[in-house]
Write a structure and sequence with these properties.
- This protein is α+β, with helices and mostly antiparallel strands and about 450 residues long.
- The protein has 2 domains: about 15-165, Methylamine Dehydrogenase, Chain H (7 Propeller), CATH 2.130.10; about 170-450, Alpha/Beta hydrolase fold, catalytic domain (Rossmann fold, 3-Layer(aba) Sandwich).
- The chain is built from 9 helices and 22 strands.
- The strands form 5 sheets. Strands 15-16-18-17-19-20-21-22 form an 8-stranded mixed beta sheet, sandwiched between helices. Strands 1-2-3-4 form a 4-stranded antiparallel beta sheet, with no helix packed on it. A 4-stranded antiparallel beta sheet has the order 7-8-9-10, with no helix packed on it.
- A hairpin with a 2-residue loop joins β8 (about 80-85) and β9.
- α3 (about 270-285) packs across α4 (about 305-315).
- It is globular, with a radius of gyration of 24 Å.
- The relative contact order is 0.07.
């Protein structure tokens, strides 16, 4: 019986994942402080770090860890390696073809799709000796599909193995777009995904009458808000709303640098998340002129609730209604208390407010500490769960009280608080109860935007 051996010794701030293929390690790693993951190869031996070299086509590295492409994972096959990651803010899949000597025999081939904004990932691929790869695909207007792709010729016709059936849904009635919005710093381009009914957009182009727009965002932990299909989004679209996703900094849409300091939105640059969101809202109102503040709503859950809370504090005049689901809004008080089970781990995201530099910075954006006194605020619906271990119910309760105390009641919208006495962080686990809770949120939204009769 042999002892367990490590592929490479542990090193500070070095991440790596390993796949085995034909006597070699395929390594995805950020070694040498690369902003994104590199793809490296070495003999399949213990303590192999000294043998790691970039996988190349000729003299060109396939994934060098630079800002252009972000690599997430690789899946090995007998004659190919399939890589998944991100490029241009969109999930991507690439095919790497290898010859009999395991050398890359042609340039990296990316799978392209017709729609501007979509979500694609690797499906279950258990057969090593296969010439085809199965990918999962959906978009803002296309329900989820499983597609089989010939790795020897990725541009050849593809086979849809399975597609989710959505009763009554007619894809041709809907349109989607992907665009970039310049942030207030004058250089950063914020990806924005948009979906709408085509007749609604055609009517706007003919009349220029403002449309109701719902803006959604998250922007934390390096998590991506994908341009994927959402059947629960259809009731809003059917009532003439345009649904917009702002892929703000703090997520991972543009690669690891979209999340990490100094260009992303972590630690002492977290305000970039909120600035980006407000900049997209202003673009919709002022530059695009699709909507007005009276017809613009916003929504976010958990850390996305922090985003919404900070955004309506920064620009309360921009929004008519806001939904804050289980919102993380009492940032400093929560992060300073290490007796809360998740707090100390969260210092890796926000910083430790027991240190002065982080305390001061967090106080400048924590929603509960920055409600504008005497300002007109949008209508707000705050929800929470009594058994939520991540964002305790008192956070939305305290923020609701702070809003009611400081806003101008005559000109501001109502501040509604709804605590589910049986739910945790992810709302109701029962499917039908979840739809009931979502219907409540939508009823509030449509009522405040004056769309309850549509």
């Amino acid at each position: 019986q042999q002892e367990l051996q490590s592929v490479a010794p542990r090193r500070k701030k070095v991440l790596y994942d390993v796949e085995h293929r034909n006597g070699s390690w395929l390594i995805t790693t950020n070694v040498n402080d690369s902003p994104n993951m590199r793809l490296m190869v070495s003999p399949a031996v213990p303590d192999s770090a000294a043998h790691w070299t970039l996988l190349k086509f000729g003299e060109t590295p396939l994934f060098d860890g630079g800002l252009e492409r972000a690599l997430d994972e690789v899946v090995p096959f007998r004659h190919h390696v399939v890589a998944s990651g991100r490029e241009g803010g969109i999930p991507r899949i690439w095919i790497i073809s290898l010859d009999e000597n395991d050398q890359v025999k042609k340039p990296l081939e990316r799978l392209d799709f017709e729609e501007e904004a979509y979500d694609v990932g690797l499906g279950p691929n258990e057969l090593y000796d296969s010439s085809h790869v199965v990918v999962s695909y959906d978009s803002l207007v296309t329900p989820p599909q499983s597609i089989r792709v010939d790795m020897s010729d990725p541009t050849s016709p593809r086979t849809v193995l399975k597609q989710t059936h959505v009763p009554g849904y007619v894809k041709e009635d809907y349109g989607c777009e992907r665009t970039m919005v310049k942030s207030r710093d004058g250089t950063t381009e914020i990806p924005v995904s948009i979906v709408y009914r085509k007749n609604v957009m055609e009517e706007f182009r003919a009349s220029h009458k403002p449309m109701p727009v719902h803006l959604n965002g998250y922007g934390s932990y390096g998590c991506c808000e994908e341009a994927d299909f959402g059947v629960t989004r259809l009731p809003l679209l059917e009532r003439g709303m345009v649904y917009v996703i702002a892929h703000v900094r703090g997520g991972g849409e543009m690669g690891r640098q979209w999340y990490e300091e100094p260009m992303g939105a972590k630690y002492l640059c977290k305000k970039n998340t909120f600035n980006d969101f407000v900049d997209v809202a202003q673009w919709l109102v002022e530059e695009k002129q699709w909507t007005t503040p009276d017809l613009l709503s916003c929504e976010g859950r958990s850390a996305g609730g922090l985003l919404i809370g900070a955004s309506i504090n920064q620009a309360p005049h921009l929004f008519r209604a806001a939904i804050l689901g289980v919102p993380f809004v009492d940032v400093v008080a929560t992060m300073i208390d290490s007796t809360i089970p998740l707090t100390s781990g969260e210092w890796e995201e926000w910083g430790n407010p027991n240190e002065e530099k982080y305390h001061q910075y967090m106080m400048e954006y924590s929603p509960i500490n920055n409600v504008q006194n005497g300002a007109t605020y949008p209508s707000c619906l705050l929800t929470g769960g009594l058994h939520d271990p991540r964002v305790q119910y008192w956070e939305p309760a305290k923020f609701a009280a702070e809003l009611r105390h400081n806003h101008v009641p005559e000109s501001s919208g109502p501040v509604c608080l709804k605590i589910d006495m049986a739910a945790g962080h992810f709302s109701a686990s029962d499917r039908y109860k979840y739809y009931k809770e979502l219907a409540f949120d939508y009823a509030f939204l449509l009522d405040q935007l004056g769309l309850h009769t549509t």
